[in-house]
Specification:
This protein is an all-alpha fold and 113 residues long. The protein has helices at residues 5-28, 39-63, 70-81, 87-112.
Length: 113
Amino acid sequence: MDSSAKDIAELYRKRWQIELFFKWLKQNLKLKRFLGKSQNAVSLQIYAAIISYLLLWLYRSRRCAPNTSLHLLLVEIRETLFTRLPTGVQQMYRRRRRERAELIEKTQYVLSY
């Protein structure tokens, strides 16, 4: 009761910024609950979510159409990461990787002389 109206308004403004931040977390990062209860656990989970969001945003800005939704991109990445490719496709990728590595090795050998 001893605080001035200006101090109370400032505290409310800071509280409102925190509320907006957690609303943004829930909407954009899909953080519905925290896995730990300590301050360190909550901070790490928030940092990990923000880093993944920024990496996804960076990927979208460099590789995708500008109007691609981050949510749709996340769904697509989730689907492709956890789906096994057919055996023939896996073998083709392995062969390409091996050929690329051999080419790099030959190039480095030539450049060293």
